[in-house]
Amino acid sequence: MKPRDDEWARRWRSAPVEQRRRIVRAVARGEAVADPRDAPLALEVIDRREQRLQSARSGWFSRWLSGRHLVILACIGIVAAVLFHDFFVIGLVLLTALYVVGFRVFLRRLEKSIAEARQNNEPLTRF
């Protein structure tokens, strides 16, 4: 762990559990925290989520989230359906495609809520 991560973890754990829950809920919903004193900690939570999101977007799995790969996967499923008549292979391909599409939707929603949370919490730190 980096020293900055240790420092953040110490600050995060020093906050009461209920305060941490309120901060995490507000960030997940894309809302501002109720107490302006929690805004700096909320912005750090947002920064950490953005870092994780960026690592997920730039990782090796991200290239499999492109539309081109989804079309290729669908074509493989259609070919499997025509050639093999094997419902297990068809189901496996369709479930994989469904998972990848769901993961793309999840990442987009996460990105949107993080942006909204940052937009709503940054003005609170200026006071």
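That was protein one. Protein two is written in the same sequence-then-structure order:
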Amino acid sequence: MPNPEDEDKAGTKTRKRRFAEALDIKASALRIIEAKGTPMRVSEIDLLHAKWKGLDIMYTPKVPDDPPDFIEQAQRSGIAIPPITPHVLDIWQGWKVFSIRWNDAGLVEIVRFQRGEWESLLNHRVAI
């Protein structure tokens, strides 16, 4: 019978590896955005967009904060407001295959990470 502790260790290693891979993808995509990104505006939000080898990469450097009245109402209702992660990076290959959010304090949230061949286009050795 499998040992639950061994399974938990394997799961932790998998999550850590996935997280490290997501950070590598983020770093590569941001290098592409720095080199080739063009400004655009979507729904009153400024972002940078780049096309790269069939991928659409979009970086939103500052997602607007929740309106103060929303925050106040949530607090009165006892709803916890999650930490703000104003930086958003999305990668599309016909559909969204990757999305990551982070803040300047180091909080990182992987919103979507759909495995696929697209990952090889954004390895850490990507030449721009």
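Residues 120 and 126 are 9 Å apart (CA to CA). Keep this in mind for the problem set.
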